[in-house]
Hints:
rod-shaped; single chain; mainly alpha; 51 residues
Amino acid sequence: MDPESQSPNQQPPKSYSKRPMWQWVVIYLVVASIVYGLVYYVFMRDGSSLY
C-alpha cells in the first residue's frame, strides 16, 4: 500500500469555482480584449476598401 494515498490530511484538488474574484476579472478582461481586437481587426480590414 502506498502511504501517501492513505494520509487523512490529504486535500482534494481545488476546483475552478474556488478562484478569487480578481482572477475572474483578469480572465474576463483578457478574453474580452482578444475578442474586441479580433472584431476590430475584421471590421477595419473589411472597411478599409471604402476609402
